[in-house]
Amino acid sequence: MPRSVTALAAALSVMLIGPAPVAAQVIRAELTGPDLVSAEITPETLAALPSREVETSFESSKGPQSGRYGGVLLWDIIAARTALDDDLKAALRRVVLVTASDGHQVAFSIGEIAPEFGNRPIMVGLTLDGAPISDGLRMVSPGDARGARYVKGVVSFEIR
Ligand SMILES: Nc1nc2c(c(=O)[nH]1)N[C@H]1C(S)=C(S)[C@@H](COP(=O)(O)O)O[C@H]1N2
Ligand SMILES: [Mo]
């Protein structure tokens, strides 16, 4: 078939049946930990928890970045899905190891995020400057001077 005919056929099929559907990205991460049935963390399951917004800025290898992230406090997720908040003194030994799809890992400590201790507003981010973050859950670590803990594409939270 001449190229122009092929191009016309392709153009016609887009007009008639629309562009090929792009598979919607499934955004989900697994939360695991001691004495815990594993829980699924998705934008839908997070919608049941209080959301908040925070202005952030950090330094990166690409220069300074700033933005307004919306999301849910990591502490609120842990308090809702585990019993760690029942015995805070014992929980202070623990960390939340966050892993991304590319293998990037960072830890946040329970003492850092617990409201009665560090009270840092570390969040699981769902929006940036009001727009949904479409490529996965993003950690938000307000106050960090550098961006390494703003983990993109989180696939798991392991309380250890
Ligand atoms: N999954 C993943 N998240 C990541 C990184 C990474 O390598 N992998 N790099 C971090 C670092 S070092 C910085 S400075 C910021 C950069 O954020 P940006 O990609 O939005 O500019 O992302 C952070 N999040
Ligand atoms: Mo970075």
Kindly estimate the percentage of residues that lie in beta strands according to DSSP.
Answer: 25-35%
Distance between the termini: 62 Å
Individual helix count: 5
What would CATH call the homologous superfamily? Oxidoreductase, molybdopterin-binding domain
Signal peptide: 1-24
Organism: Paracoccus marinaquae
Protein name: Molybdopterin-dependent oxidoreductase
Keywords: Signal
Structural description of this entry:
This is Molybdopterin-dependent oxidoreductase. Residues 1-24 form the signal peptide. Keywords: Signal. It is a single chain. The chain has 160 residues and is of the alpha+beta class. The protein has one domain (3-159): Sulfite Oxidase, Chain A, domain 2. 22% of the residues lie in helices and 34% in strands. Strands 2-1-10-5-6 form a five-stranded mixed beta sheet. It is globular and about 75 Å long.
Short précis:
Helix content is 22%, strand content 34%. It is of the alpha+beta class and 160 residues long. It has a single domain, classed as Oxidoreductase, molybdopterin-binding domain (Sulfite Oxidase, Chain A, domain 2), CATH 3.90.420.10.
